[in-house]
């Protein structure tokens, strides 16, 4: 890794303060699993990202950062992509279908899609033509976790050590997940996802000790989950304030403060 880009590093956690499109801090073919929820382009007020570009520009940006993830993944690496099924802010768009099409263009292979019901229907504000067939909006209160892989679905690399229980495996391989989203106010970030999401993904799709990357680290949720579940976590964020929020959250929610806190 290029040390000048490292915001924090120890033997379990690395935070990279850099632009995902240009960073040289991650070696090709070094990541076992990518888990991320990219910006949704619905005008969320991030510190250092324009979340209201045209949909065409958004898809161009998405192809660029997903291509970098493809480079970073091992041949048997997996990619868990949390995105909306669709959106209607700024015009109806088939987000999930479009991302899958882009991923296949890059070279990713499609495995399956998990439907996540986060119970947020109360937050809807757009109805279209209310109680009229004129122009109603249909909004599904779910998000997707699209499961992709690079070349080989069967995982040959890594420790071969699993830490998923029979009960977890039976429940989580049912592709309809229901658990609550995360509080923006509690976390201090405009679009956090709950620890439950990356925890399930990494226990299903990676071995103990594997390297897990989140290219849009945000509030640090993925690295909290990697630390709590004995994976090596790498997170990238262009905004230094989010890097600080992530590190403080990891310290608060894990045993990180009992380990080395200065960069290696």
- Taken from the alpha-carbon principal axes, the silhouette is globular
What does the largest sheet look like?
9 strands, mixed
Radius of gyration: 18 Å
Amount of beta strand:
15-25%
Task: Give a quick precis of the structure.
The chain has 264 residues and is of the alpha/beta class. The chain has helices at residues 55-72, 95-106, 166-172, 184-187, 196-205, 221-228, 240-253; strands at 6-9, 13-17, 31-36, 73-84, 109-117, 142-149, 176-178, 211-214, 232-237.
Describe it.
The chain contains seven helices and nine strands. It is α/β, with parallel strands linked by helices. Strands 1-2-9-8-3-4-6-5-7 form a nine-stranded mixed beta sheet, sandwiched between helices. α5 (196-205) packs across α6 and α6 runs parallel beside α7. The radius of gyration is 18 Å and the shape is globular.
């Amino acid at each position: 890794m290029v040390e000048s880009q490292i915001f924090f590093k120890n033997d379990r956690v690395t935070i990279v303060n850099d632009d995902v499109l240009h960073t040289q801090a991650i070696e090709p073919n070094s990541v076992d699993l990518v888990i991320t929820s990219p910006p949704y382009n619905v005008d969320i007020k991030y510190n250092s990202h324009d979340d209201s570009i045209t949909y065409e520009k958004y898809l161009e940006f998405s192809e660029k950062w997903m291509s970098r993830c493809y480079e970073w993944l091992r041949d048997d690496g997996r990619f868990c992509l949390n995105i909306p099924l669709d959106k209607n802010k700024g015009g109806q768009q088939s987000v999930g279908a479009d991302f899958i099409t882009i991923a296949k263009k890059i070279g990713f292979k499609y495995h399956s899609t998990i439907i996540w019901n986060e119970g947020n229907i109360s937050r809807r504000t757009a109805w279209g033509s209310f109680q009229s067939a004129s122009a109603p909006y249909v909004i599904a209160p779910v998000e997707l976790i699209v499961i992709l892989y690079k070349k080989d679905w069967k995982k040959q690399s890594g420790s071969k050590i699993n830490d998923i229980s029979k009960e977890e495996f039976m429940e989580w391989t049912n592709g309809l997940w229901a658990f609550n989203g995360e509080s923006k106010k509690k976390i201090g970030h405009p679009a956090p996802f709950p620890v439950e999401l990356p925890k399930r993904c990494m226990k299903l799709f990676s071995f103990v000790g594997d390297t897990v990357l989140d290219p849009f680290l945000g509030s640090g949720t993925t690295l909290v989950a990697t630390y709590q579940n004995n994976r090596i976590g790498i997170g990238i964020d262009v905004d230094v304030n989010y890097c600080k929020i992530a590190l403080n959250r990891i310290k608060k929610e894990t045993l990180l403060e009992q380990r080395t806190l200065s960069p290696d």
